[in-house]
């Protein structure tokens, strides 16, 4: 009897669970049916404000103070990312809109404060084709002594910037290349500022009639709609706010469609044509990789012109990039990479692979490595410049000695010629006397 009672209880529990599962499945089907009837795009647009943002710093109600810090013009507070709670994408778009304004602001500083001029690329560009540009000091190509070349990393940064995040959240000194430019000019360098992320022109994408799906088989169209519906639902769960943005396409800039291509182009058309005897390079993050690629493409030219390279948290890899042995040896002698590290500034840092020298930048923040290494980089350049001057002096002494030896040889040759001429003159005189006596 006890066994039958236990079996009866088990049977009742099983029946109850089956009914609950059936009810849950029924509710899920009803929920899915309800969601399929909701236009999630429209629902989410109601949650999210329009993606329309100010076009100037003044309209954003922000300005840079005397310390180069971005502050609200009314409250004096730093920039607030989470302007609207639970609207991450909208806040991100607002941040990006401010970033574009910051880019234009830095361009103005390069032109007005640093007195740099903009040079359009390609140099033979037509009116209609996409174009990029770099910045040069007035003496960049005519300075016969020193030239500084600045190459930033990848991402949204443009000419004159190391990190947009630092410009917005810290200050202009840490986030821009302006301190490097001003210091270089004070020490008599010409300056060239590269713009390796300006690779393409973005234009609105026009709908292509050939992509019309009405002729597709019904089954294929249904699968596509089902997939798109799932994406909408997933998007709603993740963001609450995916407004449709304008679709764009990228038109590559001729001979400048990648950071590596841009660096090579600027070398061929500007840096290599400068008169500077001593070229120095600062390359941050992906900029280091671009420089190594330049060396691979123009090895002899770069080695003969560049005196030293300062990298900051560079992401280059000499083996993956297949750099030659001579390049690896040159970098060991002429390059130093200031890397993110908890160690004090300039502390030697070991590398798993034999590469260029590595020193601590005194910070674990990747984007701060350039600014933290600022003074160390110029000391490093001065050391190599002094070494080059000593080498030139030694070569000059050798040349002087060679010239002195040549001069001595020329004097000896003149003496020999003079003696030969005197001997010849004496011989002629003797012959004349003998002939006269015979007569």
Features:
51% helix, 12 strands, two-stranded antiparallel sheet, signal, eight-stranded mixed β-sheet, alpha/beta, 439 residues, Rossmann fold, single chain
Description of the structure:
The protein has helices spanning 2-36, 40-47, 57-60, 88-112, 164-169, 172-175, 178-186, 218-239, 259-269, 286-297, 299-305, 325-334, 369-372, 374-438, and strands at residues 62-64, 70-72, 117-121, 132-136, 146-151, 189-193, 200-204, 248-252, 278-284, 306-312, 335-339, 357-360. The protein is of the alpha/beta class and 439 residues long. It is elongated and about 145 Å long. Among the domains are: 42-112, no CATH class; 116-200 and 252-388, Rossmann fold. The strands form three sheets. An eight-stranded mixed beta sheet has the order 3-4-6-5-9-10-11-12, sandwiched between helices.
């Amino acid at each position: 009897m006890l066994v039958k009672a236990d079996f009866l209880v088990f049977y009742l529990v099983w029946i109850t669970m089956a009914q609950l599962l059936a009810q849950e499945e029924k509710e899920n089907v009803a929920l899915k049916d309800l969601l399929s009837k909701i236009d999630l795009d429209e629902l989410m647009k109601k949650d999210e404000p329009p993606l329309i943002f100010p076009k100037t710093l003044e309209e954003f109600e922000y300005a840079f103070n005397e310390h180069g810090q971005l502050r609200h013009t009314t409250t004096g507070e730093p920039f607030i990312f989470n302007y609207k709670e639970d609207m991450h994408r909208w806040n991100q778009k607002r941040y990006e809109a401010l970033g574009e304004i910051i880019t234009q602001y830095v361009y103005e500083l390069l032109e007005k404060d640093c007195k740099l001029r903009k040079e359009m690329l390609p140099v033979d560009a037509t009116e209609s084709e996409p174009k990029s540009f770099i910045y040069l000091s007035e003496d960049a190509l005519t300075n016969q002594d020193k030239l500084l070349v600045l190459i930033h990393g990848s991402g949204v940064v443009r000419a004159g910037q190391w990190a947009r995040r630092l410009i917005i959240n810290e200050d202009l000194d840490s986030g821009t290349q302006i301190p490097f430019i001003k210091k270089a000019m004070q020490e008599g360098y010409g300056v060239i500022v590269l713009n390796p992320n300006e690779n393409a022109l973005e234009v609105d994408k026009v709908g292509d009639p050939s992509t019309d799906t009405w002729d597709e088989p019904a089954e294929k169209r249904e699968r596509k709609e089902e997939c798109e519906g799932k994406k909408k639902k997933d998007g709603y769960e993740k963001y609450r706010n995916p407004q449709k943005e304008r679709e764009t396409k990228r038109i590559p800039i001729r001979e400048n469609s990648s950071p590596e291509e841009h660096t090579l182009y600027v070398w061929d058309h500007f840096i290599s044509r400068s008169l500077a005897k001593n070229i120095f390079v600062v390359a941050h993050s992906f900029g280091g990789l671009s420089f190594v690629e330049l060396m691979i493409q123009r090895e002899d030219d770069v080695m003969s012109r560049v005196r030293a390279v300062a990298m900051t948290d560079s992401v280059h890899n000499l083996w993956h990039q297949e750099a030659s042995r001579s390049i690896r040896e040159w970098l060991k002698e002429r390059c130093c990479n200031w890397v993110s590290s908890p160690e004090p500034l300039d502390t030697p840092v070991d590398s798993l692979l034999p590469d260029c020298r590595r020193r601590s930048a005194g910070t674990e923040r990747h984007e701060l490595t350039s600014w933290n290494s600022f003074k160390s980089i110029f000391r490093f350049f001065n050391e190599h410049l002094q070494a080059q001057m000593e080498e030139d002096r030694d070569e000059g002494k050798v040349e002087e000695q060679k010239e002195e030896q040549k001069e001595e040889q020329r004097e000896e040759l003149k003496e020999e010629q003079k003696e030969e001429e005197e001997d010849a003159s004496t011989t002629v005189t003797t012959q004349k006397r003998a002939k006269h006596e015979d007569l």
